[in-house]
Specification:
alpha/beta; 6-stranded mixed sheet; 5-stranded parallel sheet; 16% strand; disordered N terminus; disordered C terminus; binds beta-D-glucopyranose
Length: 929
């Protein structure tokens, strides 16, 4: 019923702008803009009303500089258009009259986009072809279609994501949203709406004020912008994007610069798809190798994870696209992930499970954080004020927005109180209703709602400058980057007798294993990318040898089958017999690991191991290349292979990367970011993973990954940090210098690294800290510095790393802060946690940690106090009631109870004064300062 009036409004606006609605261009369905119809405009209309309003507002703005005549004519036409629009949409009109003009919430033009020019118009406006004035048309000329002459000022692009050709007008300036003013102009209902997604991937727009929706999309190693159909049905379809190596592989590069470059490329793909925020990186720790989602996470070590993820965030955000650091926190398993309570002591949380989040937040300032599904010590992350406000904002200074993981919200009003700003995806109005009811009931204040709404608007403001339509991506360049990243991510675990690299000429190379032809290059779930192109290793190897060696192929097994196929095995054995060398591609079938469930064991399928046995019988020169998203057991079978390449999941260009590594076109430089254990039974969380009855206890505490194996002196198949190269390296001349003390401590560590082999190669220097004496249990050693270094043959470089106070500190639960206890620390420098080549001891000036002397702590705390202890001992023995033996027996009794016994120097009620007397000349014993 509104069609005629709206068309009139459109015609008026378009006439003024010298624009024409382009009938050939379908409305962009998958867009970051507001809903097609305002709530009161139900019907079959497809006109984008907010955009019409935008057009009117923009034109009004633009009239400021027009001459008097032009202005009055144009204003009359605009008034007419506005009237038509208002009549067509009475509720919108009422809101508009009640409210403020959209321009009131936009700041003055800004130059912050460094030359990029745009207005906050919704991307859907792109479906109009507009005459901007360099095309020569008069703004007042008729509204007839002029597509033939409007091109020069705009850019025409064909979107990979919509398949639609669009021409975009250059805009004159960037306006930025004044979140505080906008919040002041919004009704409570509008603010509550902002706290909920508008659909699966968008925030809620506020049409009345011209505030657009922005789009969020997975993911960590490639853009997963769902097609509208897939979004509606929640199925897999998404637009093609470059599939970079997932975190399990990229982390093995140990190269923050490389990760940064991948981040910028991902951001450029997001920009081209008009996606404002990428939902990643995932920085949860690999507590168990069985976690089904380990392929999306970086490491078992929080320092390595934090450093790499911070570079990822910096890379993405340097291009004006937001990130979402996830899943905050303690989401270390898929079993029961939506309600399990991770029972973790605070020190373990701080030093292991929160540490990577902290590093990324404080170093790279992600624009958003995504809370996890699970509970932590009984409280849902989505309702955890300690986590989302006290730790994240108050301690770490986070200034962005917290969103929920998808459908992670339990009680929305509790979430708002806790600091959860945005619920995703849409709750279909449930969240909004609960928030409004809570305000009405007084359990939530309007100020709480304002705070969360202002953070949503703040995010919109941050994202707007990068969202200009019409940006393009060089997918070929990104594929090359994906190949470089994949090459740097594979890890050469063993290479007996230098079987690799394969010589350029020689006898037949038998390639065996379905994964060579059908690569497995990413994991399943929300991070699943539709690649732009996929390289397979078989074709890449054939290309690499270019006929100089015969390359034969036999599939050997069916990927999803456990049962050996006698025919396939026999065929592969024939190939192996006839070849000089066998390269066999083994790995985990896709169904073995996925978001949503955990693995059941760490073994490769039996069918593959039977094949490997048969191949090794036929030919001793076997190279195994693995494709797996999380650690597998290699010990049961690795003696059948002379060389072993851990290929992880290498992204869409992994096939070419593996060919480069196998043929020696590239030197392997990946290093394990997780330990490969000998047996599942050795793993730290064995018996305590994935828990039961909705609870999982992190009983191993701080000892996850190599912290466990190294502290407990357990043999492993391959240690954390391990990786071979085709060249060799020597480490010499370790020097350390200590600067400053206490919290300002910086230790600089320098050494010379020499490439002692015959070809260029990259090594990764790793620095582990060992604390020989501490008042608390500490893992045997912890990674606190690393640096990749590229060296020509014979070249020596000095590598210098700086370790700050945190590298030596631990979390004191009683004091609620990090403490650096002074004393000696050993710095171990090596090529893995088990290959330490150099070490040095530094003496650091830290603080003395004295527990507060209160009546209810054990006598041992008083006796062990460096000042009060000897004085107390003297006073106790002076009366003759205590000797060393009795004191020793009394040590574990609370002081108040000991004071009730005969012979103690003071009565229970005088203990406070007594403690002060014993420590009278000690600066401050309770804070450790
Ligand atoms: C996942 C998130 C993801 C979100 C959106 C959730 O199930 O846990 O990592 O970003 O879905 O796809």
């Amino acid at each position: 019923m509104h069609r005629g009036a709206i068309a009139l409004a459109l015609a008026g606006v378009m006439a003024l702008a010298g624009c024409a609605a382009d009938p050939d261009v379908e409305p962009t369905q998958d867009r970051s803009g507001p809903a097609t119809l305002a709530p009161d405009d139900q019907g079959d209309d497809v006109v984008d009303l907010p955009t019409v309003q935008d057009g009117i507002d923009d034109l009004r703005d633009g009239l400021a500089d027009a001459d008097e005549d032009a202005r009055s004519g144009a204003e009359a036409a605009l008034d007419q258009a506005q009237t038509a629009l208002d009549e067509a949409t009475p509720a919108r009109a009422a809101r508009r009259r009640r409210g403020t003009s959209p321009s009131a919430v936009w700041r003055a033009p800004s130059t912050r986009s460094r030359g990029r020019v745009r207005t906050p118009r919704t991307p859907s406006a792109a479906r109009w072809t507009c005459s901007a004035d360099s095309s020569g048309g008069s703004p007042r000329s008729s509204g007839r279609r002029r597509r033939d002459r409007v091109r020069p000022a705009g850019r025409t692009t064909t979107s990979l994501h919509t398949g639609v050709s669009m021409t975009h007008a250059p805009h004159e300036h960037v306006r930025s949203l004044d979140a505080a003013r906008a919040v002041a102009e919004l009704t409570l209902e509008e603010k509550a709406s902002l706290l909920d997604g508008s659909d699966r991937w968008h925030t809620e727009p506020v049409d009345r004020l011209g505030i657009p929706a922005i789009m969020l999309a997975d993911g960590p190693h490639g853009l997963r912008k769902q097609t509208p159909e897939a979004a509606r049905t929640d199925t897999r379809g998404s637009y093609p994007a470059t599939c970079f190596p997932p975190a399990v592989a990229l982390s093995s590069s140990w190269d923050a610069d490389l990760v940064h470059r991948v981040g910028t490329a991902l951001a450029d793909e997001a920009r081209a798809a008009e996606v404002a925020v990428l939902l990643g990186p995932g920085v949860n720790m690999k507590r168990s190798p069985l976690c089904g989602r380990n392929f999306e996470y970086f490491s078992e070590d929080p320092y390595l994870t934090g450093e790499l993820a911070a570079s990822f965030v910096e890379g993405v955000q340097s291009r004006g696209v937001g990130t979402s650091l996830k899943h905050f926190a303690a989401n270390n398993q898929e079993t029961d992930r939506r309600y399990v309570s991770a029972e973790v002591d605070e020190r373990t949380l701080r030093e292991i499970y929160l540490a990577a989040f902290e590093r990324v937040v404080t170093r790279a300032r992600p624009w958003t954080v995504m809370c996890s599904y699970n509970r932590i010590n009984g409280v849902y992350s989505a309702e955890n004020r300690w986590l989302l406000t006290e730790v994240l904002r108050e301690e770490w200074g986070f200034d962005g927005l917290v969103m929920s993981d998808w459908d992670a919200v339990n009680l929305r009003e509790a979430g708002v109180r806790a600091g959860l700003d945005l619920e995703m995806p849409t709750s279909s109005g449930v969240g909004r209703r609960r928030v409004l009811d809570a305000v009405a009931a007084g359990t939530l204040t309007e100020a709480d709602v304002d705070l969360a709404a202002s953070r949503v608007l703040g995010l919109v403001d941050r994202c707007l400058p990068a969202l200009a339509p019409g940006q393009t991506v060089d997918h070929d360049a990104h594929h090359r980057l994906a190949r470089e990243a994949a090459t740097r991510s594979a890890v050469l675990l063993k290479n007996d007798g230098g079987l690799l690299p394969l010589a350029a000429t020689g006898g037949t190379v038998a390639v065996v294993g379905e994964f060579a032809r059908t690569p497995r290059y990413q994991g399943a779930g929300s991070s699943l990318v539709v690649p732009t192109h996929v390289d397979d290793a078989l074709s890449a190897l054939r290309d690499a040898f270019a006929g100089s060696r015969d390359v034969t192929f036999a599939p050997g097994f069916r990927i999803e089958s456990e049962t050996p196929d006698a025919g396939l095995v026999a065929e592969a054995v024939e190939h192996a017999r006839a070849a000089d060398v066998v390269v066999v591609f083994l790995g985990l079938p896709p169904s073995y690991e996925s978001e949503g469930y955990d693995r059941e064991h760490m073994h490769l399928p039996a069918a593959q191991l039977t094949l490997l046995d048969a191949l090794a019988e036929a030919n001793p020169d076997v190279v195994v290349v693995l494709s797996n998203g999380s650690a597998v057991l290699v010990d049961p079978w690795q003696d059948r292979a002379r060389a072993l390449v851990e290929g992880w999941l290498l992204g869409q260009a992994g096939g070419g990367a593996l060919a480069d590594l196998l043929t020696g076109a590239a030197d392997p430089s990946g290093r394990l970011s997780e330990t490969l254990p000998l047996r599942y039974h050795d793993t730290p969380s064995f018996g305590a993973f994935p828990g039961e009855h909705g609870t999982v206890r992190y009983g191993e505490g701080l000892l996850i990954g190599y912290r466990w194996y190294d502290t407990r002196r357990l043999d492993v198949a391959y240690p954390f940090g391990h990786g071979l190269s085709y060249t060799t390296f020597a480490y010499t001349h370790l020097t350390t210098t200590v600067h400053d003390a206490g919290a300002d401590t910086v230790v600089s560590v320098s050494l010379d690294v020499t490439n002692t082999g015959g070809r260029a190669g990259r090594d990764v220097v790793q620095v582990y800290v060992h604390d020989p004496e501490s008042t608390v249990m500490r893992p045997d050693q912890e990674l606190k510095g690393f640096a990749p270094v590229l060296l020509e043959p014979g070249e020596t470089r000095t590598v210098t790393l700086a370790l700050d106070a945190r590298a030596f500190s631990w979390w004191h639960v009683g004091l609620g802060r990090w403490v650096l206890e002074g004393g000696a620390f050993e710095l171990r420098v090596g090529r893995s946690s088990r290959d330490i080549l150099l070490s040095a001891v530094v003496e650091l000036t830290g603080e003395r940690i004295d527990e507060p002397l209160s009546p209810d702590v054990p006598l041992s705390i008083w006796l062990d106090h460096p000042v009060a202890g000897p004085r107390l001992r003297e006073r106790m023995t002076a009366g003759g009631h205590y000797d060393d033996h009795r004191i020793r027996r009394m040590r574990e009794n609370p002081v108040a109870r000991v004071a009730r016994m005969p012979g103690f120097p003071v009565a229970e009620e005088d203990l406070g004064g007594f403690a002060r007397e014993l420590t009278a000349d000690v600066p401050d014993t309770s804070t450790g300062s």
